[in-house]
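Postdoc handover notes: sequence design on the structure in folder B. Input tokens:
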């Protein structure tokens, strides 16, 4: 029977039904091989390659009956052993037809992943071919498909539980390490003098695939403690990635670079697809802390050199089916803005933490870099008159990023609090009390959302919340000042207004960023209650009804914050007493009880 007489569509139908066709495994293997060996009809070749991939994938997923599994296993054995299909697939990588090249890469990848799961060894032919292509570093279909294949294999190992993932990855990466390192140095711009002069339009596809590979390498490092030379590149040679922003490449490539840097500095590479706990394995990689510090140093140096001024942000973000919101208004690309913000904030935190651990006499001015960040954001979005609003406004759609930003700003505040005055933190947008109040306000003071955050492991809210409550114990007056400041108009969504506070407000007596005693703040608050509780027709201004005062406290911004925290404490206690809370919250409840005592004093 001729190849043209074989109905691959019928075979696909039987395949998805979990059954085998009526011809022998030898005949099916022969006819598939004929379509692959001679690429006369692209459709037939792609269809046969897709069939091979589907068979291997369904065998790995145990989707066949016992008889059908034996049949298809024999087909794959005949193709890759008797007919040496791997050699042909390697040759198809360089096919000028992009579909054929890509389908061949997919076939190779699923077969290699299968072999790694069974024997722990990859095909030498595949490994050698990929190493050679990466060494040549010639952009085109062959390099793109090769990069895709290597990435797919690493991801396949990380997604599976092979029982020996670390050993498998160690062998795989050792065979490709030098080739990946060579490609990194050839594909990405190394020059710090004039990266604009490098024409990189022709390598955009290759760069996109390479960025995916770098993330896979980072994910393997975080989960299995591996630190080959290739895995350290995005940290130790971070400058090359930062220089991509200055080159003439497509916007999407620059966006992918920034997202890679963000995932790297946050230790989130592979979070959405890889198995394994990052924290349990990262401790084995002793060089990771050193490499993160190297990345942080590079980022801070580039920011000092004006890197933020060259980061592109499209005038309108991309949406499915168009570039505008449903109401027709234009939006900036918030993904880029969030990524840049977190890259800089985490770099600052890493640097400050390093200085603290080393007992270094040197200091780093967080305000300088936060000023640069504010200027960067101002060029693309309108900032609120109260700068602390930028976090809840920019990160509102991403809970995990918002918690990372807020937690990092808390760390920066605590660092600068030890090294310099507390004055003016709102100007740089990192007053922890303002940030906490604005966070609760963005959640409509709904304690159930905070409860979800505490239970979920998807954000760092628990770490941040405990940190903030400990600060609140030490600086109760800071919360009172910030509440007054925001309630008097310092946190309204007003655009382009002056940062100054009206002299008539109570906050003018106790500014948000200045130090004050507890008596001063409480006196200012009581004064407000007297003012609000007095009638214009009353001649006894000092007669304040106690019940009305308590009601005003409850209805104030500070009252809403405290009520939310008390509701949260009640909910956590109730769940814990019923054995429904996922961990022991005793320390957390102790901190919340301290808040209640302060609330009772105020009432």
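Designed sequence:
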């Amino acid at each position: 029977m001729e190849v043209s007489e074989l109905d691959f569509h019928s075979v696909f139908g039987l395949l998805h039904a979990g059954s085998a066709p009526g011809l022998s495994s030898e005949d099916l293997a022969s006819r598939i091989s004929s379509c692959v060996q001679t690429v006369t009809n692209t459709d037939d070749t792609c269809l046969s390659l897709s069939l091979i991939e589907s068979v291997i994938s369904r065998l790995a997923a145990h989707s066949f009956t016992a008889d059908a599994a034996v049949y298809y296993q024999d087909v794959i054995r005949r193709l890759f052993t008797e007919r040496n299909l791997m050699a042909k697939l390697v040759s198809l990588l360089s096919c000028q037809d992009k579909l054929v090249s890509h389908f061949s890469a997919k076939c190779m990848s699923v077969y290699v992943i299968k072999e790694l799961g069974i024997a722990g060894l990859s095909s030498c032919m595949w490994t050698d071919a990929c190493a050679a292509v990466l060494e040549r570093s010639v952009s085109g279909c062959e390099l793109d498909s090769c990069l895709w294949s290597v990435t797919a294999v690493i991801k396949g190992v990380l997604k599976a539980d092979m029982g020996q993932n670390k050993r498998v990855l160690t062998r795989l990466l050792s065979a490709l390490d030098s080739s990946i390192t060579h490609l990194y140095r050839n594909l990405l711009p190394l020059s710090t003098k004039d990266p604009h002069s490098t024409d990189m339009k022709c390598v955009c596809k290759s760069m996109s695939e390479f960025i995916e590979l770098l993330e896979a390498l980072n994910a393997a490092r975080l989960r299995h403690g591996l630190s080959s030379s290739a895995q350290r590149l995005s940290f130790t040679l971070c400058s090359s990635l930062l220089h991509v922003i200055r080159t003439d490449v497509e916007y999407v490539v620059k966006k992918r670079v920034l997202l890679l840097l963000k995932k790297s500095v946050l230790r989130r590479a592979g979070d959405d697809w890889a198995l394994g706990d990052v924290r349990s394995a990262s401790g084995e990689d002793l060089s990771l802390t050193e490499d993160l510090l190297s990345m942080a140093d590079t980022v801070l140096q580039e920011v000092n050199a004006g890197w933020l001024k060259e980061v592109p942000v499209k005038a309108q973000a991309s949406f499915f089916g168009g570039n505008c919101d449903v109401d027709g208004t234009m939006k900036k690309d918030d993904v880029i803005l969030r990524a840049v913000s977190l890259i800089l904030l985490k770099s600052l935190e890493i640097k400050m933490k390093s200085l603290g651990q080393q007992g270094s006499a040197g200091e780093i001015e967080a305000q300088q870099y936060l000023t640069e960040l504010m200027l960067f954001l101002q060029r693309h979005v309108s900032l609120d008159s109260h700068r602390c609003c930028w976090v809840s406004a920019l990160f509102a759609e991403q809970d995990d990023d918002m918690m990372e930003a807020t937690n990092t700003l808390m760390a920066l505040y605590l660092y600068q609090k030890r090294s310099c005055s507390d004055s003016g933190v709102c100007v740089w947008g990192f007053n922890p009390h303002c940030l906490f109040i604005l966070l609760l306000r963005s959640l409509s003071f709904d304690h159930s959302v905070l409860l979800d955050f505490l239970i979920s492991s998807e954000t760092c809210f628990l770490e941040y919340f405990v940190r903030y409550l400990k600060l609140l114990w030490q600086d109760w007056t800071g919360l009172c000042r910030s509440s007054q400041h925001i309630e008097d108009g310092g946190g309204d969504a007003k655009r382009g207004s002056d940062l100054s506070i009206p002299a008539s407000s109570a906050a003018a007596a106790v500014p948000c960023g200045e130090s004050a005693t507890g008596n001063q703040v409480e006196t200012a608050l009581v004064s407000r209650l007297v003012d609000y509780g007095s009638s214009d027709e009353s001649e006894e201004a000092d007669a304040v009804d106690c019940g009305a005062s308590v009601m005003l406290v409850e209805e104030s911004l500070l009252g809403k914050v405290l009520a939310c925290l008390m509701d949260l404490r009640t909910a956590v206690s109730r769940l814990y007493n019923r054995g429904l809370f996922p961990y022991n919250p005793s320390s957390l409840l102790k901190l919340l009880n301290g808040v209640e005592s302060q609330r009772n004093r105020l009432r």
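Context for whoever picks this up: The chain has 27 helices and no strands. Don't rerun without checking with the PI first.
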